[in-house]
Amino acid sequence: MGAKEKELSHFNQEGRARMVDVGEKGDTRRVAIAQGEVVMQAETLRLIREGKVAKGDVLAVAQVAGIMAAKQTGQLIPMCHNLMLTSVDLHFEVEEEPPKIVIRSEVKTTGKTGVEMEALTAVAVAGLTIYDMCKAVDRGITINNICLLEKAGGKSGHYQRLV
């Protein structure tokens, strides 16, 4: 079934928003991996690498912010369920050309619904945190290409983004 043929599940019979009932679904192991990038000036990247940003250790703070964000996704995105996450991890890869930090999150749970939104939220908030901590020296920072790379578990099975 193509994307246009699938029904959107977050609408009731009257066309109003609803939270999907997952009560009858079985618990399965769920994993999602998301990625995004924060592009900046070379000097900004140098300051981050050398630990010279006035607000502190940028990647350490972004790590904690991303984890906290994943745990709060159900409070931020209206139709998301509150989930008991079993693992949240973020990794940062510094690239020189163009100067950027690639953020990758991996979120896991065992439950009735997936953790794609939690993984995406972790990346987005980690990126926003990098921006916040560095905006005094580089207001031109951009947060780009946030996407789901992979998900596993549940009825829809395995998905892997084609690069």
Task: Summarize the structure in words.
- The protein is of the alpha+beta class and 163 residues long.
- It has one domain: 2-Layer Sandwich (Alpha-Beta Plaits).
- The protein has helices at residues 42-49, 58-71, 73-76, 116-134; strands at residues 28-39, 85-95, 100-111, 142-152, 159-160.
- It has a five-stranded antiparallel beta sheet with strand order 2-3-1-4-5.
- The radius of gyration is 18 Å and the shape is elongated.
- It starts with 27 loop residues before the first strand and ends with a strand.
- The relative contact order is 0.26.
Q: Note the beta-strand portion.
A: 25-35%
Query: Ranges with pLDDT <50 over ≥5 residues?
Result: none
Order of helical and strand elements: EHHHEEHEE
Q: Tell me about the biggest sheet?
A: 5 strands, antiparallel
Distance between the termini: 22 Å
CATH topology: Alpha-Beta Plaits
Number of helices: 4
Summed up:
By secondary structure, the protein is an alpha+beta fold. The chain is built from 4 helices and 5 strands.
